TrEMBL record:
Pfam families: Chromate_transp
Domain of life (superkingdom): Bacteria
Gene Ontology molecular functions: chromate transmembrane transporter activity
Subcellular location(s) per record: Cell membrane
Transmembrane segments: 21-40, 88-113, 154-186
Annotated source species: Sinomicrobium weinanense
Xref: InterPro entries: CHR_Transporter, Chromate_transpt
Family designation: Belongs to the chromate ion transporter (CHR) (TC 2.A.51) family.
PANTHER family xref list: CHROMATE TRANSPORT PROTEIN-RELATED (PTHR43663), CHROMATE TRANSPORTER (PTHR43663:SF1)
Name of the protein: Chromate transporter
Length: 193
């Protein structure tokens, strides 16, 4: 008898968790204009401040990992957080939550203004949206720098990576070099101890 109640209770919690994952990422998905970096404030507010599913460091790790894997930050974050909170089904449900608004919005926009994307009204609206997105991205970059710069080694890596990007080095090479150098420095510090 106790086992049945316990199993039923666990299934109810799981269903509630799946609904919570879907609705949280659905909210994020509805306002993710401008791509990954523009949505970082939304991820922070929903996943760190409200739900407490991850920390700032976790978000930085997800963003870093997202740069090395196929897909956007939104999908990678949804899949990772959904998976950690609700196993494989949680990852699927959270991913569906984040992509559903985009599918709906793009379909609706195409249906309503598909032939009028070049009109002055639509272009002015996008100009306003782009300006707001730049502000959101700047805030995200500022927060990422503050949480990611831990010591002089991080600052040196950041400056070297930035210089490499401006010199035209491929981002994958920069990531691999950063990982290798980080590992070497960590390994060397172990020998000093």
């Amino acid at each position: 008898m106790y086992r049945r109640i316990n199993t039923a209770k666990r299934q109810k919690v799981s269903r509630e968790l799946y609904v919570e994952l879907f609705t949280s990422f659905l909210k994020i998905g509805f306002f993710m204009f401008g791509g990954g970096y523009a949505m970082i404030p939304l991820l922070e507010r929903e996943l760190i401040d409200k739900k407490k599913w991850i920390t700032n460091d976790d978000l930085l790790d997800i963003i870093s990992f997202s740069q090395m894997t196929p897909g956007t930050i939104a999908i990678n974050a949804a899949t990772h957080i959904g998976n950690t909170q609700g196993k494989a089904w949680g990852g699927i449900v959270a991913s569906l939550g984040v992509v559903t608004p985009s599918l709906l919005i793009i379909t609706l926009l195409y249906y309503l203004v598909g032939d009028h994307f070049e009109s002055e009204i639509v272009q002015k609206a996008f100009t306003g949206i782009r300006a707001c997105l730049v502000a959101m991205i700047c805030r995200s970059v500022y927060k990422l720098i503050r949480s990611g710069m831990k010591g002089s080694v991080s600052i040196i890596f950041f400056l070297l990576a930035l210089l490499s990007l401006f010199c035209g080095v491929h981002p994958v090479l920069i990531i691999v070099a950063g990982a290798a150098l980080g590992f070497l420095i960590w390994k060397m510090s172990l020998f000093k101890l």
